[in-house]
Amino acid sequence: MKPRHFLSLFDLTPAELHHVLRRASELKARYRRGERYAPFPQKVLGMIFEKASTRTRVSFEAGMAQLGGSAIFLSPRDTQLGRGEPIEDTSRVLSSMVDLVMIRTFEHAKLERFAACSSAPVINGLTDYNHPCQLLADLQTFIEHRSDIRGRTVAWIGDGNNMCNSYLEAACQFDFQLRIAAPPGYEPDTGLLNRAAGRVKLLRDPLAAAENADLVTTDVWLSMGREEEQLQRQRAFVGYQVNTTVMAQAKPDAIFLHCLPAHRGEEVSAEVIDGPQSQVWDEAENRLHVQKALMEFLLPGGNEKP
Ligand code: CP
Ligand code: NVA
Question: Considering only CA atoms, which of 135, 206, 219, 223 is closest in space to residue 171?
């Protein structure tokens, strides 16, 4: 039987996504009570990182250890991947030895090629195209604070990058309105914009995007792999900072989220990210809980599916 993968939010149905989020909050409560829940002894997660990471690495590795299994960190520097072994060959071999694979890489197509040859479920830990695990954590955080996201308004301010693309996927799967304020030339993926038609508005003005929003969110101006574009991006994104003026347009109880790492003084002011509307620490912690729920969902013999 072909394994289920999690390469985008479209790989799970809305009911399955809601199940994972509910389960994440349950696992979080149990973890906080100090209960041991280790249903996967001897299960192994392989983690390929072709880009840097703090949250993704630690949340997957700690999460798998807490579930009773273990994780292996693999980087191109010290595997044959870095010496040109085809991704398809790596996939066949790795998936014959581990139970789950998580990959963070550049081209989304590389992740898809790996998944096509993998006999184990594959999880997207970020590509240049999207970052669905982060969206699971963002949605868990919003729902824990405001109970439901359906019909709400989310404002995305800044680069139409991998995070913005995943917000488009989320708008479709969780049925909310997304307003994107991006400078010309930095819009998100056209295919996803079309798929989210009816649920998305593409604007230029951050203040208009934030008006009456329930959630305001942003991300760095310079994603990993774009380092050589630093100067032109610094110029293009002037005026695309989430600050108190932008937050004042949103609903008074609006939440601010940021996937982190953040650059205070660029895409977000210190006042906002360190202020009372910011839930970024909960958001980061929820990576642990929601990915445990996701791994449980994907592993054979995991928790009952909806
Ligand atoms: N948000 C996120 O994915 O963080 P890392 O790059 O630290 O994994
Ligand atoms: N857009 C950022 C997200 C980091 C978690 C990047 O790709 O670098």
Answer: 135
The C-alpha atoms of residue 292 and residue 34 are separated, in whole angstroms, by 16
Q: How far apart are alpha carbons 306 and 297 in whole angstroms? A: 10
Tracing tokens 């085809």 back to the chain, one arrives at: 86
The hierarchical CATH code for the domain 5-131+285-298 is 3.40.50.1370
Residue 71 CA to ligand 1 centre (angstroms): 17
Question: Catalytic site residue 195?
Answer: no
Q: Which of 233, 258, 287, 289 is catalytic?
A: 287
Task: Of 6, 121, 101, give the one whose Cα is nearest residue 47.
Answer: 101
The DSSP H or E segment spanning 217 is: strand 215-218
Q: How far is the CA of 148 from the centre of ligand 1 (A)?
A: 25
What ranges do the domains of the chain cover? 5-131+285-298, 134-279
- The alpha-carbon radius of gyration of the chain (Å, integer) is 19
Q: What is the pTM of this model?
A: 0.97
- DSSP E strand boundaries for 83-214: 100-104, 122-124, 153-157, 177-181, 200-203
CA atoms of 7 and 113, how far apart (whole Å): 11
- Pairwise CA distance, residues 209 & 155, whole Å: 6
Contacts of 119 (CB under 8 A, 6+ apart): 3, 92, 95, 96
Tens of pLDDT, residue by residue over 177-221, are 999 999 999 999 999 999 999 999 999 999 999 999 999 999 999
Q: What is the Cα–Cα distance from 216 to 248, expressed in whole angstroms?
A: 11
pLDDT the model gives residue 1 = 79
Distance in angstroms (rounded) separating the CA atoms of residues 265 and 252: 23
**Beta-carbon count within 10 A of 302 CB:** 17
Mutate which of 54, 75, 258 for ligand 1? The one with the most ligand atoms within 8 Å of its CB, which is 54
- Domain 134-279: CATH class, spelled out: alpha beta
